[in-house]
């Protein structure tokens, strides 16, 4: 019996939403005392305490929670917290959670939330976390839901031991031992205890989509927002980060986004070259013929053609690169 229990414990559930950081080890860095989660938005009944020996008190926007802090919300309570300006944690209604781990470094953060009951959402507003970074929710059963570049909601019922993960954006890999189940954007999975993982994920239901919408609506105080807007812009649109929260370095930026910048520079170069041409030889020729011609048809034509070319095809290519980049982020 003890042997079977030990084997069962060895099959801890792991839900990882992975992009290119798959398989990377957490980076060494500071301790929990060096980092914090900062409260950005509080709605309804939300209480916190910095350690288990403290007394719960109402949460305050701007408050900083260190490793070991505990959070609990009432039926009307929800809170959004930020590790940095691009990584957000939301603790939903009727939930209890612990800030289990705050480590790594500013640019390679390691963050883990222990969800003891209720639901929590994670969101990272870039294509990927840097290699070695960890951003996850775990449960007392040893389950873990990690995210890299997407939005996920994890619900856990401690009585039934049912864990439900729903991917609003990105790609999710549910892993247990050598078993892996991939969830694409808009899919969900239910797993009970140590039961075998399903052979395939299910499509996200309307009710599950509405759970994301309900969080967004409550965080922004009933603002006019749709699930499509949340899917495109993220839950962070409904609860922006505090002004004084940490901002990661360019290490967070997807290299593919650099393509947009280079194309933009190319567009500038084209515009510059066109301007030089329009004010160069043709302008000089027209000036040598007559001062009226230099300010007339040839000058206007060269200026018009150069401006249209640089702001036309090149400019469109640049915006296209950005669209592709944002599309990659969504998939991730």
Strand and helix map with partners:
Elements: H1 2-10, E1 14-16, E2 37-43, E3 46-49, E4 57-58, E5 64-65, E6 70-73, E7 78-84, E8 87-91, E9 96-104, E10 109-124, E11 134-138, E12 144-146, E13 151-157, E14 162-169, E15 172-176, E16 179-183, E17 187-192, E18 202-203, H2 206-219, H3 227-233, H4 258-278, H5 281-289, H6 291-294, H7 297-331
Parallel strand pairs: 1-12, 10-11
Antiparallel strand pairs: 1-15, 2-5, 2-7, 3-4, 3-6, 6-9, 7-8, 8-10, 9-10, 10-13, 11-12, 13-14, 14-17, 15-16, 17-18
Helix pairs in contact: 4-7
What can you tell me about this protein's structure?
Strand 3 (46-49) and strand 4 (57-58) form a beta hairpin. The protein is 30% helix and 30% strand. The chain has an 18-stranded mixed beta sheet that branches. The model is unreliable at 2-27 and 251-332 (pLDDT under 50). The radius of gyration is 26 Å and the shape is globular. It is built from 7 helices and 18 strands. It has helices at 2-10, 206-219, 227-233, 258-278, 281-289, 291-294, 297-331, and strands spanning 14-16, 37-43, 46-49, 57-58, 64-65, 70-73, 78-84, 87-91, 96-104, 109-124, 134-138, 144-146, 151-157, 162-169, 172-176, 179-183, 187-192, 202-203.
């Amino acid at each position: 019996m003890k042997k079977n229990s030990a084997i069962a414990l060895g099959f801890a559930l792991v839900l990882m939403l992975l992009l290119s950081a798959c398989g990377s080890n957490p980076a060494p860095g500071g301790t929990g005392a060096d980092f914090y989660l900062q409260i950005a938005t509080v709605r309804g009944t939300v209480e916190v305490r910095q350690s288990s020996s403290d007394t719960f008190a109402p949460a305050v926007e701007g408050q900083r929670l260190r490793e070991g802090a505990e959070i609990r919300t009432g039926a009307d309570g929800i809170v959004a917290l930020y590790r940095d300006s691009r990584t957000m944690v939301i603790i939903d209604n009727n939930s209890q959670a612990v800030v289990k781990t705050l480590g790594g470094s500013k640019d390679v953060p390691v963050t883990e939330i222990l969800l003891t009951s209720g639901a929590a959402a994670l969101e990272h507003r870039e294509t990927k976390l840097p290699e070695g970074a960890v951003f996850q929710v775990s449960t007392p059963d040893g389950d873990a839901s990690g995210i890299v570049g997407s939005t996920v909601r994890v619900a856990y019922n401690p009585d039934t031991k049912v864990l439900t993960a729903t991917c609003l954006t990105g790609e999710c890999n549910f892993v247990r031992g050598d078993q892996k189940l991939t969830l694409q954007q808009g899919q969900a999975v239910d797993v009970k205890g140590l039961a075998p993982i399903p052979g395939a994920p299910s499509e996200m239901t309307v009710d599950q989509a509405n759970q994301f919408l309900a969080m967004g609506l409550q965080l922004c105080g009933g603002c006019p927002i749709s699930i499509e807007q949340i899917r495109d812009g993220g839950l962070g649109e409904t609860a922006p980060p505090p002004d004084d929260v940490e901002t990661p370095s360019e290490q967070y930026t997807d290299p593919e986004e650099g393509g947009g910048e280079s194309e933009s520079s190319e567009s500038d170069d084209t515009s510059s070259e066109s301007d030089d041409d329009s004010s160069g030889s043709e302008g000089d020729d027209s000036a040598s013929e007559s001062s009226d011609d230099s300010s007339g048809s040839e000058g206007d034509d060269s200026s018009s053609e150069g401006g249209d070319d640089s702001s036309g095809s090149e400019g469109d290519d640049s915006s296209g690169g950005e669209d592709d980049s944002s599309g990659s982020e969504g998939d991730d």
